[in-house]
Design a protein that fits this description.
- Helices cover 3% and strands 46% of the residues.
- The protein is mainly beta.
- The strands form 7 sheets. Strands 1-2-27-26-25 form a 5-stranded antiparallel sheet, with no helix packed on it.
- A hairpin with a 2-residue loop joins strand 15 and strand 16.
- The longest helix has 11 residues.
- It is globular.
- It starts with 12 loop residues before the first strand and ends with a strand.
Length: 358
């Protein structure tokens, strides 16, 4: 929790911050947010998540938030293995919570994305299915699903019915998946893995599979990718043509290492920690917010959460416009709303309305 960002419920609060980075989301860049995050006025509209109550408000671990054009939103709970749906006022619309391998069930989903206003897609690498659900006033109804195979950390986004996944295959890390589950096209050569030179040859392929995928953000005109572990960010058009590529400055990567040459491990820098991507969401007109957790090996001595570094990236050319460590974790935006996620003392989604800056 970041003190000073959120005030009492419904009470406006002025936040004195540097110009902050912002971005991310499902399909399209949100409008209604100021082009900077300096001295924002924020109302806390409502919070979802409690110590006890109905399944839709007692989250185990909030992994993702996806927002629809009309204000509805979905929350992916990876611990409970469920997707909960809410209207724009926070009222529950229903849940996708049946577990298993049958149509309409979940096993271990890691990605959710709206395709327009009435369709939610769920990427479930545990069962190797991408499922479509029709969302109405009474909840979600299973429509159909198609196969997709990926291993390790994966990115997932949709744009105008097209589905993109990020995983390593044949040297590429972004793949458009067709309705039959086949790969339509692949693009974006895998980035260099920090620490790769320390691994024996047999482990280098494993390191490529595990440490090269990126988190994906589908926006108007293309796909933004940001590496989970490395410093690279790139923007491709929807046909896979590279528009720009950047390496983030002042970035400490997670290192691949193997102390016994038996498997690949992750090594984090002591002190400030290594950058591990947590969020990419849209912010205002043509910007994206990248948020990295500064992870250290094990827990911090004082038990505090790892700090989050936020960067404001301009989608036009990838330029970094601002950076701060004062923002909380934000997993979604829509219009002038931002969706903050807290895991302590209980997992919660706080829906905030940005009412101005100054």
């Amino acid at each position: 929790m970041i003190g000073g960002w959120i005030g009492p419920l419904r009470a406006p609060v002025v936040v004195a911050l540097l110009i902050l980075p912002a971005c991310g989301g499902e399909s399209g860049v949100s409008a209604g947010l100021p082009p900077r995050l300096e001295r924002l006025r924020v109302d806390t509209l409502f919070a979802i998540g409690a110590q006890s109550g109905e399944p839709w408000e007692t989250f185990g671990g909030i992994w993702d938030v996806a927002t629809a054009p009309d204000g509805r939103f979905a929350v992916l709970d990876v611990d409970a293995v469920a997707v909960h749906l809410f209207d724009g006022a926070g009222a529950p619309l229903g849940s996708i919570a049946d577990q298993g391998l049958d149509p309409g069930t979940l096993r271990s989903p890691t990605g959710i994305a709206w395709n327009g206003g009435d369709e939610l897609r769920v990427w479930d690498p545990g069962s190797s299915w991408i499922s479509r659900f029709s969302v109405g006033p009474s909840g979600a109804e299973f429509v159909d699903r198609h196969r997709a195979f990926a291993f390790g950390e994966t990115g997932f986004c949709t744009s105008e019915g097209r589905v993109f996944l990020s995983y390593f295959q044949d040297g590429q890390v972004i793949h458009e998946i067709g309705g039959d589950g086949a790969i339509v096209r692949s693009f974006s050569p895998a980035p260099d893995v920090a620490g790769m030179e320390t691994l024996v040859l047999e482990l280098q392929e494993l390191a490529l599979e595990e440490l090269t995928p990126s988190k994906l953000l589908c926006v108007s005109g293309g796909v933004l990718e940001a590496s989970y572990f490395q410093s690279r960010i790139q923007f491709h058009d929807t046909e896979g043509r590279l528009v720009w590529s950047r390496e983030l400055a002042d970035f400490t990567p997670v290192l691949a290492y193997s102390p016994d040459d038996m498997g690949v491990g992750l090594q984090y820098a002591e002190g400030d920690g290594s950058h591990l991507l947590r969020s990419v969401v849209p912010w205002g007109d043509g910007r994206a917010l990248l948020q990295h957790e500064l992870r250290v090996e094990g827990s911090r001595p004082d038990g505090a959460a790892d700090p989050i570094e936020s960067r404001l990236i301009r989608l036009e050319d990838g330029a970094e416009e601002a950076r701060t460590r004062s923002l909380p974790l934000i997993l979604g935006t829509r219009g002038n709303r931002v969706f903050e996620v807290r895991q302590r003392p209980v997992p919660q989604v706080l829906v905030l309305e940005v009412t101005g800056d100054g």
